Amino acid sequence: MVQSNHTNMKEFFFLEILFVVFLAVYVGTVLGNALIVVTITCGSHLHTPMYFLLWNKSVLDIVFSSVTIPKFLVDLLSERKAISYNGCMAHIFFFHFAGGTDIFFLSVMAYDRYLAISKHLHYVTLMGREMWLALVVASSVCGGLHSIVQIILMLPLPYCGPKVFYCAFYCDVPQVVKLASTDTFALECLRISNNGLVILMYFLLLVGSYTRVLVVLRSHSVEGQNEALSTCTSHILVVTLHFMPCVYIYCWPFTMLPMDTAVSINNTVLTPMLNPMIYSLRNQEMKSAIKRMQRRLGPFESNKMG
Q1: Domain 2-301 in CATH: superfamily?
Q2: Which pLDDT score, from 0 to 100, does residue 260 have?
Q3: CA 36 to CA 276: how far, in whole Å?
Q4: Quick one: which of 66, 64, 89 has its CA closest to 171?
Q5: Which of 37, 162, 253, 305 is the most exposed place for a label (fewest CB within 10 A)?
Q6: What is the spatial distance between Cα 139 and Cα 131, in angstroms, rounded to a whole number?
């Protein structure tokens, strides 16, 4: 009994440390992306297509991380790590809505950079305000359709016992399908075609698009090359961080592998936190805008204290 209590204390202490770490990551994710949103909103010179799209990307990152991390934080300190059937279906819907919209949105950002570098003389005409809004709405619609397909595939599955799922991290299609009381081979094939192949195709298209952009950059001036290259490498890094875990998770049949949890954490927790760091630290205009906003807020805070 003493040994059991001692072990439980160690486990609880470990869970408390994990709670603090993931809470700090979540707060950093929200604050970092919120900083980008506020900076672009307040900086009138940043009201351009690229920064408008970056503004939307930061909002998506906040939503995406908020779908999974709060529930995970609650489960860390709870003895009963469970979620109802309806709650699990809602979780899957919003998870795939935010994640799917994010994937389509990354392709929109790649298209924007392609036009800015390859068609720079016609860029202002091609990427007018109406086009910005149309691309954002189209990404959201595609993300919504993607998440609806996931729910349509999941609802007919029979589950034995009470409709309560015990999950270690978050509800997603691979984990929930394993609990179904039927043969899921056909569903696995549909899942791989709907998720895995689409993600892989988009990833290859984005790599090809940015490769094309980098080839076009060779004809630009050295100063233009450096500025565009810094922006493109930021985008490429974010695309790689976002797509590689998705390819790992959704391009394989429903077999649980030892790295699944680590990859899932990287995809849902770390990537949204790294995005604002990558975009702000590698973008000179963003860094300058943040410094100007800090200087404007400095006197305001001083007057408030006085």
Answers
A1: Rhodopsin 7-helix transmembrane proteins (1.20.1070.10)
A2: 67
A3: 7
A4: 89
A5: 305
A6: 12
Tell the residue number behind the tokens 């570098």, with chain if given.
Answer: 117
Buried b (16+ CB within 10 A) or exposed e, 57-69: bbebbbbbbbbbb
Question: Please, what's the largest Cα pairwise distance for the chain?
Answer: 76
Range of lowest pLDDT (67-81, 163-177, 236-250): 163-177
Tokens 């991290």 correspond to what residue? 169
CA atoms within a 13 Å half-sphere pointing along the CA-CB vector of 175: 17
For 263-276, b where at least 16 C-beta lie within 10 A, e where not — what string?
Answer: bbbbbbbebbbbbb
Report the C-alpha dihedral over residues 60, 63, 69, 74, rounded to 10 degrees.
Answer: 180
Among 87-101, 159-173, 207-221, 274-288, name the most confident range. 87-101
Cα distances (angstroms) measured from residue 47 to each of 37, 221, 276: 11, 25, 18
State pLDDT tens for residues 70-99.
888 888 777 777 777 888 888 889 988 988
- What pLDDT is attached to residue 1? 44
Q: Contact 243/265 with Cβ under 8 angstroms?
A: no
Report residue 26 as tokens. 């979540």
Look at residues 178, 156, 158 and name the one whose alpha carbon lies nearest to residue 167. Answer: 178
CB-count exposure of residue 82 (10 Å: 0-12, 13-18, 19+)? middle
Q: Where are the domains of the chain?
A: 2-301
Beta strands (DSSP E) in 30-74 are: none
User: Would you say the C-alpha torsion 186, 188, 191, 197 has a positive or negative sign?
Assistant: negative
3-state helix, strand, coil in the chain (%, to 5): 80, 0, 15
pTM over 0.70: yes
How many helices (H) and strands (E) are present in the chain, helices listed first?
A: 12, 2
List all residues 6 or more positions away from 200 whose beta carbon is below 8 Å from its beta carbon.
247, 251
